[in-house]
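cron nightly-structures :: item 1 of 1
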Amino acid sequence: FQSTVTGGINFWQARSDPAGRTRRTFHAVTMLLADAGFTAVGLLAEPAERDGDLRRLHKNLAIGSMGLSTVSWVIMLPFFGTD
């Protein structure tokens, strides 16, 4: 939660800087989507213990959220430059 709030504040403060705006926006949106996925994973944890279909959904959401957050992080690395 703290990282999401800090990232939101940073995103807001950089809103007038055109350098890297596309990357920052992509990063903000994909991290929010990953956060939503992680939240869904947490909400599905207990019901997934009893239901195979929910267990599979729980696992797939976890893997997808980890992948999305990793891609979002990598795109912000300095060697990708600015847009």
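cron nightly-structures :: done
The chain has a mean pLDDT of 92.
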